[in-house]
Amino acid sequence: MYLRLGLLSLTCSLLPLLAQGLPTESPTETSHALYPRAPATFTHPGVLVNRAQLDFIKAKVAAKAQPWYSAYNAMLADSLASSTRSPSPFETVACGSMSKDPGDGCHEEREDALAAYANALAWYISGTQSYASKAISYMNAWARKIKDHTASNAPLQTGWSGASWARAAEIIRYTNAGWSSSDITAFENMLRNVYLPEIIGGSNKNGNWELGNIPMFHTIMMEAAQGISIFLNDASSYDKAMSKFLDRAPAYVYLTSDGPCPKSAPIDGFTSCSQIKDDWKQYSFPENGIAQETCRDFVHTGYGISSMSHVAETSKIQGTDLWTTEVGTRVRYGLGFHSQFLLGASVPSWLCGGKLDLSGGKSDFQITEVGYNALNNRLGISMPNTGTLTQQNRPARGNNLFVGWETLTHASNSAF
User: Fold this and answer.
1) Of 11, 158, 179, 299, which sees the most CB atoms within 10 A?
2) CA 158 to CA 404: how far, in whole Å?
3) How far is 115 from 319, CA to CA, in rounded Å?
């Protein structure tokens, strides 16, 4: 993959003003000058982990090295990795808000996709065929059954599940695990016809949806679209997902270089800085790392930052290092800013009216491994608060949505 520089004269003329952070009541829409293009040939396995990373994990577990050996055993002890667990596919997955009213197949789909991923990892690490067969059983069961996602949370549900399916499928397909060509075709058809159309268009909900929940909706949706596109070798959909991601990501985590107001994504439709501040429920921005959902709660904020990390990691595998760009900078400060409060820092009066929802505690913010490994271990960037929180949360578990076992996969993973 390569990045094409879009040097539009209008953009260039505005950059000096934006860099000065001159006060303005007009919101600054995200405008990325880097335009992603899919690689000529996709790397496989290439969603969140590549073969070199998998080999690194395999060697560490074989040597009973820590923290990987404990993390591996914790994954195997998870009920999702149980050999007696069976898939529970639905023809129509109907998910309302909070996966309720309706809540048909929501937990089953997400957890089956994560179970497939856990078993795919266990297969590669151990070489035990029963794990591969179990992962295949989950993917085949859903490929034969599901036809649609419905109700208000359909895009988010599809994003959560799709992200995990893509990771599992990449490992199984490209490691001689015994998945038949006809079953692979059926799974491709499921992703192409049921999943991708639901998420590739994006959403005007807040950031974590598209990254994959309202802002979070966007990040998670685009994470899933990216992974599915790789599995399908679909360069056009990959480009579309990455373009939307690069529009949305700068509007999810604030940098002081953005000026007095956070950026907005084109899809948001904000016409003034005051609208953005009302949406964020935050009215001053003196520090890097504040996120669109900080004043909502740290759980949903973590979802969005996690998806940003996942997309950046997968992009690096596919040939474009987003960790060294603005995306990496926003992940760095987003992780550090929120980690400090989970470690006990006092909440300043200017932040969310002096009150933060930390009800999930450290255990619900187990999303730091991927970003910490990329930024601290690979790039040598000091991240003391994130590092401390990462250590305290090990071994990181899954969240039964789309995050799973990232101490195992990414703790000090120096493979590339």
Assistant:
1) 158
2) 17
3) 28
Cis status, amide bond into 45, omega within 30 of 0 = yes
Distance CA 278, CA 304 (A): 19
Amino acid (one-letter) located at 285: F
Query: Cα–Cα distance between 275 and 251 in angstroms, integer?
Result: 13
Question: Please, what is the Cα angle at 127 between 123 and 133, to 5 degrees?
Answer: 45
Is the bond preceding residue 197 a cis peptide, omega within 30 degrees? no
Neighbours of 212 (CB within 10 A): 37
Contact 407, 68 (CB under 8 A): yes
Judge whether 33 and 7 are in contact, CB under 8 Å. Answer: yes
DSSP string for residues in 323-361: GGSHHHHHHHHHHHHHHHHHTTPPPPTTSGGG----TTT
Q: What is the pLDDT of residues 293-344, one digit of tens each?
A: 999 999 999 999 999 999 999 999 999 999 999 999 999 999 999 999 999 9
